[in-house]
Amino acid sequence: MSPPCLLHISSALHHVSSMSPSCLLCSPPPTCRDSSEGHIPAAGSDMSLYSFGLEPLSCHTWNKDRTQIAVSPNNNVVNIYEKKGKEWLKIHELTEHSGRVTGIDWAPESNRIVTCAADRNAYVWTLKDAVWKPTLVLVRINRAATCVKWSPLENKFALGSAARLISVCYFEKENDWWLSKHVKKAIRSTVMSLDWHPNNILLAAGSADFHCRVFSAYIKDIEDKPGPTAWGSKMPFGELLLEHKDCGGWVHGVAFSPGGEQLALVAHNSSVTVVDAAQGKAVTQLTTNRLPLLSVLFVSPTELVAAGHDCCPVQFSYSGPGALAFVKKLDIPKQTSRGGISAMQHFQNLDKRAGDEDSNEQGTLHQNSITQLCVFSGQRASVQQYSSVGLDGALVLWDFKVRLELTSLPVYKMVFITEHSVWFIYIYI
Where are the WD repeats (predicted)? Predict the structure, then answer.
C-alpha cells in the first residue's frame, strides 16, 4: 500500500476539524477525491436571473470588469446596461444598423465593441466623451452577417456570413480604416459559429453545410510568423487545417479548449463532438436525446457546458478519445407552491388534468431557448461563473463551483480514545 499523500492528510484533518466528536463517532468513513483525480464542478444554488423585457435576446457580451452588458433584443439595436445595485439600467443605445443584429463582441483590453447584422455591415464602436461612435468596416459581403468574434490579442476579428465566407478584419493605420481578407476555401453554406484558438492565429468555423473547419487566419502585415501547433505547421492565410464532415447537422456552436488542442462543437442533430488534435485529430461524438444545443464553451480543460432549445445548460466531460460523457443538467427546477393542497385535491387534479399542476411554465429558470453562453468570471481554464441569454428575454448568471466527488478509496484509519469520546481520523491514499 502506498504512503498517504499530504494533500489527503490535510483534507482529512480539515474534515475532522469541521465536525463535532459526536458526528465523528457515528459517521461512516468519508471518502473524497482530490484535484489529481479530477474535480466535478457543480452549478451553485445562488444563481441570479434578470429579465430585460418580453423581447427575445439574440446575443450578448460583457465589458472587462463585468459591470456593463451589451445585448440585442432581436432587432437592429444594441442596448448597453450598467449594474446599479440589483437593477440593470440602460445607459447607451447603439442604433447604426438597419437590419437585425446577429453578433456582438466586446474587447476587454481595448474597450471596443464590434457588431454585425443582417444588413451586411459590421461596425467597430469606440467610446469617446461618454458616447459610442461607430466606424464602418469594409467586410465586402453580399449576404447577411451571422456572427463576429474578436481575436485574443484584439488586433483583428472574424466575421461569419451567409455569403459562404469568413471576413478576417484588421485595422490599417496608414489609411485609418478597417480592412478585411476573405477565407473562402471549401465553405459551401452559411457560416453559423466562430471561435479563436488561444494562439490568435487559428480560427474554427461551423457552418450550415454540416461541416466544421479550422483555418489559419495569419495576417503577416500585423503579426509575427506563428510556430507549429498540433493542428498543423503550415499556416499561410486561409490554410485549411481541419475539415470534419460528419457533424450531423447545422453546426450552431464551436469552442476551443483552454489549451487549444481540443475543439468542441454542437450540431442540430442534438450531438456534441470533440476533435482532439493532440490525439491525431481523433473525433469523439455523443448524440444526446435532448433538443438541439445552440452554444458551447469549455469551463475547464476537461469539462464543457452547452445549452440550447432545452432551456437549461448541461454539462459534459471529455477525458480523451472515445470518452465524452453527459454529466448532468445544471439547472435548478423551479419550486412551485401548492398552496396547502389537500390529498383529495391532489388526486382530483390527477384525474382531471392527468397531472397535479395547471401551468404552462417550464420547470427551468429560462422559459425559452438559450441562445448564447458567455464566460462571466474566471479564466478559460477555470471558469467560475458563466452567463446565458434566451428567447424569453432573460439573463441568468450561473455559478460553476468545485466540489469533491465522493468515491471509494482506501484509507488509513487512526483512532484516538479520550476520557469522554472516541475519535476516528481517516487518511486518504
Answer: 94-128
Amino acid at the residue 94? L
CA angle, corner 407, sides to 404 and 409, nearest 5? 115
| Grid cell in block for residue 244 | 470534419
Measure CA of the first residue to CA of the last residue in the chain; give whole Å.
Answer: 9
pLDDT at 342: 60
Q: Can you tell me the distance from the alpha carbon of 190 to that of 233, in angstroms, rounded to the nearest whole number?
A: 28
Measure the CA dihedral 397/398/399/402, to 10°: -160
CA 41 to chain centre: 14
The pairing of beta strand 411-417 with beta strand 394-403? unpaired
Q: Which residues contact 416 (CB under 8 A, 6 or more apart)?
A: 422, 423, 424, 425
245-262 CB burial, b ≥16 within 10 A, e <16 = eebeebbbbbbbbbebbb
Q: What global pTM score does this model have?
A: 0.79
Burial class (CB in 10 A: 0-12, 13-18, 19+), 280: exposed
Contacting residues for 74 by C-beta, under 8 A, at least 6 apart: 55, 56, 57, 58, 100
Q: Which residue has the cell 479530477?
A: 38
Low-confidence ranges of the chain (pLDDT < 50): 1-46, 336-340, 402-413, 428-429
Contacts 24+ apart (CB under 8 A), 289-292: 290/314, 292/249, 292/252, 292/266, 292/267, 292/268
Distance CA(214)–CA(197), nearest Å, equals 9
Nearest to 63 by CA among 98, 44, 91: 91
Helix (H, G, I), strand (E, B), or coil: what is residue 76? coil
pLDDT at position 354 is 56
Please state, in angstroms and rounded to a whole number, the distance separating the CA atoms of residues 264 and 262. 7
Which helix (H) or strand (E) is 149 found in, with range? Answer: strand 145-150
The radius of gyration computed from the CA coordinates of the chain, to the nearest angstrom, equals 25
Per-position DSSP letters for 15-61, written without gaps between them: HHHTS-HHHHHHSPPP----TTT--EEEE-S--EEEE--SSPP-EEE
Grid cell of 425 as nine digits:
481520523
Count of positions (residues) in the chain? 429
Count the Cβ atoms, other than its own, within 10 Å of residue 182: 17
Hey, is 232 helix, strand or coil? strand
Q: Beta strand 177-183 with 166-172: parallel, antiparallel or unpaired?
A: antiparallel
